[in-house]
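Q: Could you fold this chain for me?
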Amino acid sequence: MTRVAIAILMLAWAGAAAADLYRWVDPETGSVKFSSYPPPWYGDAQRERSAPKVQVIPSGRTAGPPEPAAPQEDSAEPKPAAGAGGRGAAPAKSALEDRRKLLLKQMSDGIAAVLSSAPGEGARPFAELSQKTSEYRTVEAALQEADPAGQAARRADWNELTALLEGRRRVLLQQIVARRAPITGSTPDELQSQWRAIGQQLESLGWMDNALKLFDPRGGSTREAQQQSLTEQLVQEWKPVLEASPGRAQ
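A: Sure. Below is the predicted structure, expressed as structure tokens.
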């Protein structure tokens, strides 16, 4: 498992397609509109000349800033609020929230796939999880504008997934530490089997830390240092035993 290989897989992997979003600025209110359906003028060259520019947000892509609305003359009359009188605002918010909840479920399933992956097979589920987290951030950025009041609840959902990974990581660390020292009197075959099992656990820990980095990048350096320190201690403890063992465990 190398970071370069992971990066290549992340770039190459194409996740399952979801519906595109359409984004534009309402010239009357100046507010940003989102919808899973294109506005009436989209695709009509003649109407598009005098209508707001529409930005298409493909599934899993990060959206750039919307085109600014054309300058409007100052008016003493208040602008109509988006809501009951603002056409398209509620459906856009609902579509974004539905998509966010679907992505939450997919990310939860993706975490389970990463944690249960067989030795040497963690790259694909990790790439899929990375794709979904990227898509989730795009939807979350849109919801920040469409529904800023719901930010705390959305953050709690994100933190639940982070806590799930953190909890599983603590359990795996405890398992590795508990079996660190070679068992006295073990046969060469038993030593090799024990060493391979630790190697598989360390590989799982590596994929787990990669997944956690998607949800909590700020803690990545601390986790990486902890994993490196643990690996070095294991090598120091096992190297003399393995070198003295007939058949030399690999």
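A (continued): Strands lie at 21-25, 32-35, 55-57.
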